[in-house]
Automatic annotation (TrEMBL):
This is Carboxyl-terminal processing protease. Coiled coil: none annotated. The lineage of its organism: Bacteria, Pseudomonadati, Bacteroidota, Chitinophagia, Chitinophagales. GO terms for molecular function: endopeptidase activity; serine-type peptidase activity. Pfam families: PDZ_2, Peptidase_S41. Gene3D superfamilies: 2-enoyl-CoA Hydratase, Chain A, domain 1, 2.30.42.10, 3.30.750.44. The keyword Protein biosynthesis does not apply. Keywords: Hydrolase, Membrane, Protease, Serine protease, Transmembrane, Transmembrane helix. PROSITE patterns: PDZ (PS50106).
Length: 535
């Protein structure tokens, strides 16, 4: 009873002390005597976040806060390396699709000519083929009211209309031989292949073209490798030209297939990331046959990992031109607004210990202009013009000198062929004259073109006749191309390109590379070197 009496006496006193202390601390808080209204609890928030909050609440005009935030993030990232980027919510799905190796849609390839959307290819086994869509059909409408012809139509708009969740249905109005028809297509999962071609260049030498390193690349590579080995392949060309990279895992797993033992493929390390080694883990499918890798200034990141590991272990020859020079590792972090931050978290180093990353100390603009500067300085034309960033060379396992700090320098240099881009040819390329002509020619000569069994047969047997060549020149003139400027060398290129684009129309990328490689100087040199090699 006495304890309760004491508690009743002291409780009011305790509350009074707490109240007085609270008033005193409140009086001492910043802004308490200034007359300003405290809108935000500052807590541990940064000045950047405080600024964004104040602009959002107090600024005189209404702003699009999402756009403002994106500009602020982009501005912040300009002070980092060139490969740390912000991906807005509207772009994230498309960016991820490219690396995941598939998307959900109807399974057609199209182009836009004369303000009309033309179906130039139908994916075998895809939703459109099942619905009866044919190459040569023209898309007039999507879902009744959406007209897709005219000046305002773009490839991006068409893709957004045709893509959608697997199982959903889209009605497409097609024009086929001057007759309109409505076709209902149930969307499905559409693969995005990263191995563009695989075939035998000679009875013993195989060729595999890898366009990027996606989630499905390793399995595609293994399927191609097994197919070629069944056909008798003993030596291999891997083409990494214009391959911008992608998933690190895809590159290391492919490296494991061509390197033996438990060799180091690369290691990564960063301020918050301790060194991590990536080594061969199992017997590979192609550890012994002679190997050549084709590279150029567009080969970057994961491409450079694969080429660099092969070079450092003296496993094969690198043929072509110096690679891009990207040796930074990005990790993607999802953001609350639905976008993502792809942030550089480490650098990677290939087995000799060299970093491939070129300098970005002069800012992003200088970094982005590096390839053009290489051309201006003559590096794409002359090996002696290559500027090595490292003053100290590295040694491979067999003692060869190699250099880092700016990409992979090839063992055998092949210059860029500038003669292929005369003024008249450049006009034809920029206006898609070759591909548009091939599409129209295919639609009117299917009976002739479908006689060829496969891409190999087409490559060996098809020739561009004088009649076909003149038909192309007539088409080009209608496309405002000044054909009177065509030289004898231009004619050779035009004939080769007509055949190449017809092969692509018939056999997609497989046909394209099989035909174009027949005259490619890098491929020819690779074949010459591999034919001389014992392993």
């Amino acid at each position: 009873m006495s304890n309760n009496r004491k508690l009743n006496v002291f409780l009011p006193l305790l509350f009074a002390i707490v109240l007085a202390l609270g008033m005193y601390l409140g009086y001492k808080m910043p802004g308490a005597q200034s007359g300003s209204t405290v809108l935000f609890s500052r807590g541990g928030r940064s000045a950047l976040q405080e600024t964004m909050d104040l602009i959002k609440v107090k600024y005189v005009d209404t702003l699009k806060v999402d756009d403002l935030q994106q500009e602020a993030i982009d501005g912040l990232l300009t002070h980092l390396d060139p490969h740390s980027i912000y991906i807005p919510p509207t772009n994230l799905a498309e960016v991820n699709e490219d690396l995941e190796g598939n998307f959900e849609g109807i399974g057609v390839e199209f182009n836009i000519t004369d303000d009309t959307v033309n179906v130039v290819a139908v994916l075998a086994g895809g939703p459109s083929e099942a619905a009866g869509v044919l190459t040569g059909d023209k898309i007039l409408k999507v879902n009744d009211s959406l007209l897709v012809t005219g000046n305002g139509i773009t490839s991006d708009k068409i893709r957004k209309l045709l893509r959608g969740p697997k199982g959903s249905e889209v009605k497409v109005t097609m024009l086929r031989r001057n007759k309109q028809m409505d076709i209902r297509i149930k969307r499905g999962v559409i693969p995005l292949y990263s191995v563009d071609a695989s075939y035998l260049i000679t009875p013993k030498i195989g060729y595999i073209k890898i366009s990027k390193f996606a989630a499905t690349t390793y399995q595609e590579f293994m399927d191609a490798l097994r197919k070629l080995q069944r056909q008798g392949m003993e030596k291999l060309v891997i083409d990494l030209r214009q391959n911008p990279g992608g998933f690190l895992d895809a590159a290391t797993r492919i490296a494991d297939e061509v390197l033996d033992g438990n060799k180091l493929i690369l290691y990564t390390k960063g301020k918050s990331y301790p060194r991590t080694d990536y080594k061969c883990e199992k017997p590979g499918l192609f550890e012994k046959g002679a190997l050549a890798v084709l590279t150029d200034e567009g080969s970057a990141s994961a491409s450079e990992i694969l080429a660099g590991a092969i070079q450092d272990w003296d496993r094969g020859l690198i043929i072509g031109r110096r690679t891009f020079g990207k040796g930074l590792v990005q990790e993607q972090f999802d953001l609350s607004n639905g976008g993502a931050l792809r942030l550089t978290v480490a650098r990677y180093y290939i087995p000799s210990g060299r970093s491939i990353q070129k300098s970005y100390s002069n800012g992003r603009e200088a970094y982005d202009e590096d390839i053009m500067n290489r051309y201006t300085h003559g590096e794409l034309l002359n090996k002696d013009s290559i500027k090595q960033a490292d003053t100290i060379p590295y040694k491979t396992a067999k003692g060869r000198l190699v250099y880092g700090g700016g990409g992979i320098t090839p063992d055998i240099f092949i210059p860029f062929d500038t003669s292929r881009f005369s003024a008249v040819l450049t006009d034809m390329y920029t206006r898609n004259t070759f591909s548009n002509f091939a599409y129209k020619y295919y639609n009117t000569h299917q009976d002739v073109l479908n006689r060829y069994k496969d891409a190999s047969g087409f490559t060996r047997q098809f020739t561009v006749t004088p009649e076909l060549y003149n038909d192309f020149l007539s088409y080009a003139r209608k496309d405002s191309i000044h054909t009177e400027r065509v030289t004898a060398k231009d004619e050779t290129e035009i004939r080769d390109r007509i055949k190449t684009m017809l092969a692509r129309q018939l056999y997609r990328t497989e046909g394209f590379y099989e035909v174009i490689n027949a005259g490619d100087p890098l491929v020819k040199r690779a074949v010459t070197e591999l034919e001389k090699a014992k392993e």
